[in-house]
Write a structure and sequence with these properties.
Length: 254
């Protein structure tokens, strides 16, 4: 009875050894295949056998370092996109933040609008005739103060209400063009010398000191500092027309 048992052992032992020899290459192949599968992603093909699946599980344990390498290679790619977007947003945000400052600086430097000083209002032009009751000295003083403030000249018009030439000059002064020149460039003060006012006569001699017989109207242009620039008692009156008086006013306006 012992011999058949030994015979069976001898026969079964070689049979079981042969499959083990065949399985070793299969396991090695499965390990390589599992490593490739882990590196390149899962395959869509079904597993061939239970032994290959078992070998694949052991191969995953053995090829942990191999599968970690692709993961390490792919994870920077995934983490690179947030950093890239962060860097893009970081580079974009200063630009966006600088844009308002640039516009503010342009608004504060070269985009600042140039200040334009408003033109002074035209000076008041007195109507025709001469007021014998007016305080001529006070009117002249007020005109000189205004001239110092706005740079206009002071025009003194010495005349009388009964003087024909004075009335002719008044008509020209009332015309729109002449009134525009007077309002823009002069402070006009009309002084009555046709009455018995000694004060007004003294003012005439002060601003036209040459004396003698005066031909009315006597037109005296005075600077803001009080200096006499021209005196028609000396130079003679211009033509008492619009062209003559306008040319005279323009000549001494500056």
């Amino acid at each position: 009875m012992l011999r058949p048992v030994r015979a069976d052992r001898r026969t079964t032992s070689p049979r079981s050894a042969a499959p083990l020899g065949r399985r070793l290459p299969l396991v090695a192949a499965a390990v390589v295949a599992a490593g490739l599968t882990a590196a390149c992603g899962p395959s869509s093909e079904p597993a061939g056998s239970a032994d290959a699946a078992t070998a694949g599980q052991s191969a995953q344990a053995l090829s942990g370092s191999q599968s970690a390498t692709p993961t390490a290679e792919t994870s920077p790619t995934a983490s690179a996109s947030p950093s890239a977007s962060a860097s893009a947003s970081a580079s974009a945000s200063p630009t966006a933040s600088r844009a308002p400052s640039g516009s503010a600086s342009s608004g504060g430097g070269s985009a600042k609008p140039a200040r334009t000083s408003a033109a002074p209002a035209p000076a008041k032009v007195p109507g025709p005739g001469y007021d014998s009751s007016a305080d001529a000295q006070k009117q002249i003083d007020a005109a000189l103060r205004a001239a110092k403030a706005d740079g206009r000249m002071v025009l003194l018009d010495f005349g009388a209400n009964w003087c024909g030439n004075c009335k002719a000059a008044d008509k020209v002064f009332a015309q729109s063009q002449t009134a525009g020149i007077l309002g823009a460039s002069y402070h006009l003060v009309k002084v009555d010398i046709g009455g018995n006012s000694s004060a007004n006569s003294a003012l005439l001699r002060k601003y036209s000191p040459s004396g003698g017989t005066y031909t009315m109207p006597v037109l005296v242009v005075v600077s803001p500092s009080g200096t006499v620039r021209t005196d028609t008692h000396v130079t003679g009156n211009p033509s008492l027309t619009a062209d003559g008086i306008n040319a005279f006013l323009r000549k001494w306006a500056s």
